[in-house]
Write a structure and sequence with these properties.
The chain is α+β, with helices and mostly antiparallel strands. Helices cover 60% and strands 16% of the residues. The protein has one helix and two strands. Strands 1-2 form a two-stranded antiparallel ribbon. A hairpin with a 2-residue loop joins β1 and β2. The chain is rod-shaped and about 115 Å long.
């Protein structure tokens, strides 16, 4: 009775690239039941009595909501990791490509320099 409301804050998984922070109420449980358009109350028959059903199902409902929030957060984390690893792989491939081009240019420059030295040496002998 000391707390008026309990909410859970979690990352809602939308897709592998997108997660959204969501705040969902846990307690008190809401009893939003659609009534017919005529406004007449429909009496529900429950066995055991409604308070017994509520006492049995309320803890399960809260556990299911917490588990769903945790699963959404875990899925979001895995999606973020997958996206980060994909970006890292792409960046590494680009870096390897650039370094290979730089290496090949340096090697070609060294070969050209050696050929020029050989040609100049041969020309100086003649």
């Amino acid at each position: 009775g000391a707390v008026g409301q309990v909410r859970i804050v979690y990352n809602q998984f939308i897709n592998a690239l997108t997660q959204r922070v969501d705040v969902a109420p846990l307690l008190p449980l809401s009893s939003d039941v659609e009534q017919p358009s005529g406004g007449a109350q429909i009496p529900y028959l429950t066995e055991p009595d409604p308070s017994g059903v509520l006492q049995a199902l309320a803890p399960r409902l809260v556990e299911a909501q917490v588990e769903g929030a945790l699963l959404d957060s875990i899925a979001g984390e895995h999606g973020a990791r997958m996206t980060a690893m994909d970006s890292a792989t792409t960046n590494a491939s680009d870096m390897i490509h650039r370094l290979t081009l730089t290496y090949n240019r340096a090697r070609q420059a060294a070969i050209t320099s050696e050929l020029l030295d050989i040609i100049n040496g041969a020309n100086s002998i003649d």
